[in-house]
Amino acid sequence: xxxxxxxxxxxxxxxxxxxxxxxxxxxxxxxxxxxxxxxxxxxxxxxxxxxxxxxxxxxxxxxxxxxxxxxxxxxxxxxxxxxxxxxxxxxxxxxxxxxxxxxxxxxxxxxxxxxxxxxxxxxxxxxxxxxxxxxxxxxxxxxxxxxxxxxxxxxxxxxxxxxxxxxxxxxxxxxxxxxxxxxxxxxxxxxxxxxxxxxxxxxxxxxxxxxxxxxxxxxxxxxxxxxxxxxxxxxxxxxxxxxxxxxxxxxxxxxxxxxxxxxxxxxxxxxxxxxxxxxxxxxxxxxxxxxxxxxxxxxxxxxxxxxxxxxxxxxxxxxxxxxxxxxxxxxxxxxxxxxxxxxxxxxxxxxxxxxxxxxxxxxxxxxxxxxxxxxxxxxxxxxxxxxxxxxxxxxxxxxxxxxxxxxxxxxxxxxxxxxxxxxxxxxxxxxxxxxxxxxxxxxxxxxxxxxxxxxxxxxxxxxxxxxxxxxxxxxxxxxxxxxxxxxxxxxxxxxxxxxxxxx
Length: 503
Fold this sequence. Notes:
By secondary structure, the chain is α/β, with parallel strands linked by helices. The protein has a domain at 332-477: Isoleucyl-tRNA Synthetase, Domain 1 (Orthogonal Bundle). The protein has 20 helices and 15 strands. It has a six-stranded parallel β-sheet with strand order 3-2-1-11-12-7, with helices on both faces. The longest helix is centred in the C-terminal third of the chain and has 30 residues, at 333-362. It is elongated, with a radius of gyration of 26 Å. The model has no long low-confidence stretch (mean pLDDT 92).
């Protein structure tokens, strides 16, 4: 069985989760569910980044310890993932004892191999980013709380891996996805790569993993956090487990942290003689009025509010349907409501209601058998039979929105098919009319397949559809045509009630 290991970034625990965090994690969850649907074994890792200056300062303001602070606030993410029906395999925290010990082991090993050295450095330090920045970054970027610092720190010899990294990217065209992000990194690497400062002196930052060979320093938060991708699959604890899952198939993240993953992380792996991940995937930003969501300007969308009003599956569907991976996407309540009403309430929900009412009325609640198909029947059956392979291809190419559009296209085709067949007319005077019975049965098969293929996107709502159509739990992986004949259809309420203008 093919195995898939995918990750989200570790979310900084000092921030309240917003739509952007939700999107990345839903994306990982949807991909993991699709791969499981298509018969693969999946390990899905997410978690929280819990060290660093911002955590230390926040704890000080709240008159508590950093550990007490992160123990409380990391639950924001766990609670949200639960509300979003995120089915992760492991939630890792950078304060976990195993992770802390393994970070120290990596540092000690690199120190002994002379991959780390002590040096004095003077430069611009961004408090918000918790890292030194270049003069060019300062001029071009949006960095807050800039200080000029001069201090001794430990540096990782990242620069010596520059040519090896460039060669790997060029030899593996889909290593960094999409291509625009790959080109961005190659552009970044045209200039000499600096060594990476991987420590902070304790006299200005105590909350971090102590450098094992110098008790006066803690580890730079990014060097610490990135190692979660191997510590989360038991590196140096269980070699069989680690070798079974590593290298990662997909590191998923927002485009703003592509450099840390495609440069810092990859060179760290090279220095440790570990295989590189197969794909580093950077999605775009969610924009509000063409502006990136930001806590500082107060345009952050709280996913909890949307879940409470419209349900988690509606939000999952919108986010997956609306964004083309790699491009920015806009969020607005008007757009959300329009997508919900058009795709879910009108197309899918009304269609399900229409079919089940007709089957209950003319077929004694039982899906009829198909006999003597005509060309119109065969055309729809052909669409049904070809859709799983098309969906798998789109998912494999990370075209989630296109996969969903193809599924919804089938839903719209069912509606057109029913308009052509008019089974309500044919069965009104003769409830044994085979053409009318075929229309209901084939339509029911089609909507069942649509629900099975939408299950990774909307698991709770699709389970409701399975229950209505008499599909046994766990059988959603069976995508073959002709599996629900004679199933008993259950009466149900509106699956997706329309959102009115004043809602």
